[in-house]
Amino acid sequence: MEVHRAIYERRAIRAFTPEAVDEATVRALIDAAVQAPSATNAQPWGFVVVAERELLREYAERAKAHYLTLELPGPYGSQARELLQRPGYDIFHGAPLLIVIYAASDRHDTVSDCFLAAQNLMLAAHDAGLGTCPIGFARPFFGLPDVKEALGVDMDWEPALSLVLGHPAERPEGPGRQPARMLAWRAGASTAQSSLARHGRGEQVGDDEETAVRPAGVLIVAHRTAATPKLLAAIHERAGRGPCAFTLLVPRSYWDPDTEEAAATLELAIPLLEGAAGGHVEGIVGSAEDPLAAIQDALGRGRFDEVIISTLPAHVSRWLHRDLPHRVEQLGLPVTVLTAEQSHRGFAVPPQEERGSR
Ligand SMILES: Cc1cc2nc3c(=O)[nH]c(=O)nc-3n(C[C@H](O)[C@H](O)[C@H](O)COP(=O)(O)O)c2cc1C
After folding, report:
1. Which of ligand 1's atoms lies nearest the C-alpha of 93?
2. What are the chain's domains?
3. What's the pLDDT at 188?
């Protein structure tokens, strides 16, 4: 699998089938983990694998109990406490295997190296069709002297992160991501211009200051899902962050060459989007039948900082099936994907929309 795809597809998995993961696979994943970079190539990681069901159950209970003895200040603390106190809450999510990554404590900042190794492992597991979830709740427990002793781990190892691993019994959508918070980007005018040109923006920006004050350009790409609650919430949230210029692009669909339906979608959706944005939302019908071409064209017509793609659930979305978000990402802008719940489809139109051949 392509790395880019693995990065975008990987999700924290919290439901597993009872099937065990074979030893060779676990070893291969750990081998992928240790390919991670580390400061001065110190490779300061060590691994513990627990695949004994009984022991996992015992550790799950003890780790939970231990976490609840800790001082957990603030709203995060009370949320964590509430979650852990739910009857039957299994901190290992029923996974058949746990990997604890320990960091050598003989030098500074080794835990960050271990986190890089953990990410390698999670991506490699996803590539192998397996699921992982980091379990921060277990970290304090694996630092207890008696636990280290029972596992045969020397006292100078510090737990960095534990991960559960198994065959996924779910394909969650994940919580999504906000566009990166750009705290600074100092570049000379020529660099800024070439970067903007790469993003397909027609106009050139003269200096950094202008870039900083203009509203954030958000291109929303949607058809049937042009006004779902998720999309409205995302727009409301973006608008709350600061001035935004929203544009809704409804690509022409293959069964609607005359764009009548796209125009009707705009007409229905724009007022709802404007309600969520608290201001004007521009609407455009895609210039091409291919959504990617329509997006490229739209990006060329204005200044955009983000693309939001709103589409049908993953199993029926033609756009997701064709990997549209990834292809748009390659145009150089951050992409957020929002998939509608079945019951939240935007408008009643023929059932074959966005389905097509898969
Ligand atoms: C350091 C760390 C600790 C985490 N601890 C837990 C945990 O204890 N339990 C859990 O279910 N998920 C845990 N997660 C998973 C995050 O909740 C999850 O990665 C995040 O919500 C983003 O979702 P995604 O991984 O599906 O994109 C942890 C993630 C990280 C990076």
Report:
1. 11
2. 3-166 (3.40.109.10), 189-344 (3.40.50.620)
3. 77
Which residues have CB under 6 Å of ligand 1?
A: 11-12, 14, 133-137, 161, 174-175
Burial of 17 per CB tally in 10 Å (0-12, 13-18, 19+): middle
| DSSP H helices in 42-73 | 53-69
Which residue's CA is minimally distant from atom 25 of ligand 1? Answer: 12
Please state, for a pLDDT cut of 70, what percent of the chain lies above it.
Answer: 87
**CA of residue 11 to ligand 1 center, whole Å:** 9
* Site of tokens 């350009």: 217
How many other β-carbons are positioned within 10 Å of the β-carbon of residue 134? 18
**How many whole angstroms separate alpha carbon 95 and alpha carbon 162?**
12
Q: How many CA atoms lie within 13 A of 283 on its CB side?
A: 20
Average pLDDT over residues 142-166: 98
Mean pLDDT of all residues in the chain? 87
Neighbours of 54 (CB within 10 A): 7
Sequence-ordered list of residues with C-beta below 8 angstroms from that of 119, at least 6 positions apart, any chain: 36
Cβ neighbourhood burial of 133 (10 Å; 0-12, 13-18, 19+) = buried
Average pLDDT rounded to a whole number, residues 30-40:
97
Kindly report, residue by residue over 262-300, the tens digit of the pLDDT. 888 888 899 898 999 998 899 998 877 788 888 988 888
